[in-house]
Fold:
Amino acid sequence: MKSNRKLCVFVALLALASFAIAQDPPKEAGPFREPDLVELVKLDPTIRLDIRYATKNNFLGRPVYKQARAFLQRPAAEALVRVNQKLRTQGFGLIVFDGYRPWSVTKAFWDATPEDKKIFVADPSKGSRHNRGCAIDLSMFELATGKIVQMPSEYDEMTERSHINYECGSPESKRLRSILKTAMEGEGFAVYEPEWWHYDYKDWKEYPIGNVPFNRIKK
Structure:
């Protein structure tokens, strides 16, 4: 009986160890830049936030962030501020859905997403550009009305309509999508083609995968 009990304890400890390993970000060879995550609204208070993952209004149907905040590495954040300033001359402002994302959240997304939809989420075994603080999910709103613009699909919609080259949207929605793309590319961001809202900053490879929660990011 004692030997069986010891075996059960050993198996339980082994399972816990395996679980802990699975929850750790992948190891990477550096060198990397020292992370310098900046809160976007502190650089430019005119950037609006709609942090869906701090609410139930997302594809998981539950909050995964405890705080509705958005961060980027400083060079990316400063570039985004320039994008916002340029768009304001055209009557638009930026609205941000997500920026830096802890690795543990990326893993939760991956685990919850069906195989045929995994093109819309990052593989946690490789890490995400969001984890590195160099990816941003965003759209635009009209300065005159405050209303978010209508793009060819909704944010986080896992369909072909989300692709940057989807051609069956209305002419106006495609025009607005193009305005955002042109402005972002002008400051060193590149779109992730399956998602019109997702842009990666040019220096993303220079930063490590992060897993720090928002409340532990040093101001």
